[in-house]
Design a protein that fits this description.
Distance between the termini: 49 Å
Largest sheet: 7 strands, mixed
Number of helices: 6
Shape: globular
Helix content: 25-40%
Radius of gyration: 18 Å
Strand content: 25-35%
Order of helices and strands: EHEHEHEEEEEEEHEHEEEEEEH
Number of strands: 17
Structural class: alpha/beta
Length: 279
C-alpha cells in the first residue's frame, strides 16, 4: 500500500519573484511540518506579469531562472518532492514556455512539462486572454515516477478542458493528476470544480489542483478554490479564496479500487461519425 501525504499551496503572486518565493516558502515549510511528502504549487508560481513588455524584460531562461533556483533550494531544504506548477521560461524561439517542473527531495529536476493547450478566450464578463501571443505550446504529455512511489501526470490550467489528455495520461500509468492553475473568476465559478471532479471520475485518478487566488498585477483576478479530489470524484479538501495550504492522504489503493469498479479506461471502442455537418 502506498499512501502519499500531499499538499496544495494556494498563492496570490505579484510581478516580483522575491516576495512570491518568500510567501511560497513559508507555506511549503508549513506543509513539511505537517508531514507532507508531495507539495504542488499553482500555475505561474514565479510571477504574474500582465504587461507584455515587462514580461519580456523579466523572463529568464531555465539555467538562470531565479524562481526555479529558489524552489530547488526549498525542495532540498524540506526534503520533499515539489511540483512547481509552472514558471515563465525564456526559450530560443520568439515565444516563452509555460513550464512545470517536478523537483526531487534533493532539488534535482525529475520532469518538465510545457503546457499543451493555450488559453485564448473571450469571456462573458469582457475579459480577454491570448496566451498564444506570448507562449508556445508544448507537444508531449508527461507521466513521472514519484520518489516515494506513485506516478504523476502533468497538466496546466486550460489543459483541464481537454479530457483526452487526462485519459491518455491515466492510460500511460498516471495515478495522480496535477492541474496547477490560475483560473479566471468567471469560468472558475461555473466550471472549475465540476471539470476537476469529472477528470478524476473519468480516469480513476486523484487530482491535485493548486490555484492562484485574488487580485494580481494590473487587476487580473483568479478564482482560488484549490482542490484535492479522490478517484471517485469526492472533494477531499477545498482552500476557498484565502492564501494557504490544503492537505490530504492519497491512498493509491483507492485508484485501483475505482478502476476495478468502473474499468472504463479499458473499454475504448473504435467508432465513426455519420451524418456529420461541418461546424
Amino acid at each position: 500500500m502506498t499512501v502519499i501525504r500531499a499538499a496544495c499551496i494556494q498563492l496570490n503572486v505579484g510581478p516580483d519573484v522575491g516576495p512570491n518565493l518568500a510567501a511560497a516558502g513559508d507555506l511549503i515549510r508549513d506543509a513539511a511540518g505537517r508531514g507532507a511528502t508531495l507539495v504542488v504549487l499553482p500555475e505561474v508560481a514565479d510571477a504574474i506579469i500582465e504587461d507584455p513588455a515587462l514580461l519580456r524584460e523579466r523572463a529568464q531562461p531555465e539555467e538562470r531562472h531565479e524562481a526555479l533556483a529558489g524552489y530547488r533550494a526549498l525542495a532540498r531544504e524540506t526534503g520533499m518532492t515539489l511540483l512547481v506548477g509552472s514558471a515563465v521560461v525564456r526559450t530560443d524561439g520568439p515565444r516563452f514556455a509555460n513550464r512545470s517542473y517536478l523537483l526531487g527531495p534533493d532539488g534535482a529536476i525529475l520532469a518538465r512539462y510545457d503546457k499543451i493547450h493555450l488559453y485564448d478566450a473571450d469571456l462573458p464578463d469582457g475579459e480577454v486572454h491570448r496566451e498564444s501571443a506570448q507562449f508556445a505550446p508544448g507537444g508531449a504529455g508527461v507521466v513521472a515516477a514519484l520518489p516515494g512511489g506513485g506516478r504523476l501526470g502533468l497538466t496546466i490550467c486550460y489543459d483541464l478542458r481537454f479530457p483526452q489528455l487526462h485519459r491518455a495520461l491515466a492510460k500511460a500509468g498516471a495515478e495522480i493528476l496535477a492541474v496547477p492553475a490560475a483560473f479566471a473568476c468567471a469560468t472558475g465559478a461555473a466550471h472549475w470544480e465540476v471539470l476537476l471532479r469529472a477528470r478524476a471520475i473519468e480516469t480513476g485518478c486523484f487530482v491535485l489542483a493548486p490555484a492562484q487566488t485574488g487580485t494580481h498585477h494590473l487587476g487580473r483576478r483568479t478564482w482560488g478554490h484549490s482542490l484535492i479530489v479522490s478517484p471517485w470524484g469526492e472533494v477531499l479538501a477545498d482552500a476557498g479564496t484565502e492564501v494557504g495550504v490544503i492537505m490530504a492522504d492519497l491512498d493509491l489503493d483507492r485508484v485501483r479500487a475505482a478502476r476495478a469498479a468502473l474499468p472504463s479506461l479499458s473499454h475504448d471502442r473504435a467508432f465513426e461519425i455519420v451524418g456529420a455537418v461541418p461546424a
